[in-house]
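Recall the central idea of this unit: under ordinary conditions, the amino acid sequence of a chain determines the structure it adopts. In this exercise we apply that idea directly, starting from the sequence alone.
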Amino acid sequence: MAYEPQKSDNFTFGLWTMGNPGRDPFGEPVRKGFTPVEMVQELGKLGAYGVNFHDNDLVPFGSSAAEQDRIVAEFKTALSDNGMTVPMATTNLFGHPVFKDGAFTSNDSRVRAFALQKVMRSMDLGYDLGARVYVFWGGREGAEVDAGKDAVTAIARMRDGMNFLCEYSKSQGYDYKFALEAKPNEPRGDIYLPTTGAMLGFIATLAYPEMVGVNPEVAHETISGLNFYHAVAQAVDAGKLFHVDLNGQKVGRFDQDLRFGQEDAKNAFFLVRLLESYGFTGMKHFDAHALRTSDRADVIEFAKGCMRTYLILKEKAKQFDADPVVQEILAHLNTSGDAESDTLLDGGFTKEKGDALKSRVFDVDALTAKSLPYEKLDQRTFEILHGVA
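Accordingly, the structure predicted from this sequence is:
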C-alpha cells in the first residue's frame, strides 16, 4: 500500500509548522521557513486538506490595513490555486510582550480588553478564509508566583472572556465551534486548566457550553506523563472532540512537537484506532515541527512522514480488528457475565433492581478465577505493529 494522503483524510498543518526556521531557546534559525504561500503550494502537492493559522502567522503583528489586504489576497489565491482550505484559526495571545502575564487572565483590564479585541479581529479574518473551528490555547494564562494572581479570579476571567467571544460569534452570525487546548506548563510555570479533563469541567460552567469543545494535543498531555489516548476517549465520550493536534513527545521533556509517531508508536496506534473506529470526521491537525537539524527538503519529508504514519497506523488498526488471535482474546475478555447481571445493570437504577442486587449472592472465587490474558494481547499488538503477525 502506498499510504498516499487524500483530501478525504482531512490532514491539516499549522502555518507555524513548516514555517518554523529551526530556532529554539538556545540557538538562532538554521533554515529559511516556508512562507504561507510556499507552504500551501507544498502541502497541496502532498495531498493535505488544508492549513490553519494564528492571526500573526499570516499577517505580522502591527501590519497596516493595506498590508493585511495584500497578504490575505495573495493567500486566498494560493489556496484556490492549490485546492486547499483553512478549516481552523486561532489567535496568538502568547508571543507579544504585552501578554507576559496572561491575556484573558491578566490582572490589567486593559490587557484583557486588548486580548478580546485581537481575538475578535482574528475571528473575522479566520471566518473570511473559511475557518469554522476556532482554537484557544492559553499559553500565558498561568503563573509562576501564585501570590500575585488569585486562581479563582483567573478562572472567572477566562470564563468571562469565553462567554464574551461566544456572544460575539453569535452576533456576527458566525457558526464557529470553539475548541479549548490544555497544557500543564510551558511557557508558564503552571498553566490554568492543565488537562483535557479540566477543560471539559470548565466548559460545563460556560454560558454556551454547546458551542465549546476541546482540542487535545499529544505533546501537551504526554509532557506530564498522562495517556493521550485516554484523554481523547473522554472527549469523544462527552461529544466534545471538536479538533485534535497530532505530534510526538517524550514524557517529562520540554514541549518537543515531534513528528507524529516519532515517539510511543503504541499510544499513537490506539489514538488512530480510536479516531477511526468512532468516526471522527474533524481535522487531523499536525501541530509539529521538523527537527532543528532539517533543511527545507527534510521539512517536506517531515510533513510527508506525519501523514504517512497516520495512514500506516490506520491500516494497522484494521489489521488488529480483523486479527483472529486478537478477536478471540477480546471475545473472551468481553464475555457477558450472565443474564441476571445483564438485567440488573441494564437501564440504570430502579428500587426493584437495587433490592435484587443487594440480596444477590456472588461466587467471588469463580469471578476471581477468570483468566485475563493481557500479556498475550499486548504481545500480539506489538507483533502487529512491527509487521510480524
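The chain has 16 helices and ten strands.
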